[in-house]
Please model this.
Amino acid sequence: ANLSSRTDYIKPAVVSKEIDICHGVFSNKKAAEHAAKELGKFKKQTDVWSVARLTQVELDNCDKPYLPITLGYKGFKCFKQDLYAIKHLLIAGRTGTGKTTLLKSILTSINHQPKNANCKIVLIDTKDFDFNGYSSEYLMTPVITNAEKAVEYLNQIQSDDEDIAIIIDELADLIAVKSDIQDVLVNLAKNPKIHIIVATRK
Model:
């Protein structure tokens, strides 16, 4: 409810006409883990077939860049959104509710992006735990685990021709160390080719 009431403040900051709040995509951690299981094992992206098949089917008659990301299950149905359409994504919840699991599902989707998507990844995990050792052909740089380096790297990002998904696990922890990361993210959010996906505790 608190987040929903603040959309009027968020919209001008990220230069967006609308902010959609999706409640109840996951009811608990078990549901989030079930969604991740359907996508395959995170460490073995080559084993994931469901996203690849769904993407191909949906893109058969699509003439524009389209990057579907699977967000889980809602009403026992696969809940997906086009990252290029929703632009940014905030994942909020208490510890243990499946935020990191959802980020892994999103990464799996991006790793199976259609050829015309052309989306790169910047992954920030200052806990240096859940994404330790993660690798992908779409990573622009190895996983960033240091707050100082995160701010320094993000300040250098510019994108005119390819999309970049900036994914941050536990934004609150990063802000606690480097509060100026908030201004950096707001400026990046104004770039139409940059998509910010953050998970944070409520």
In short: The first helix runs from residue 7 to 13.
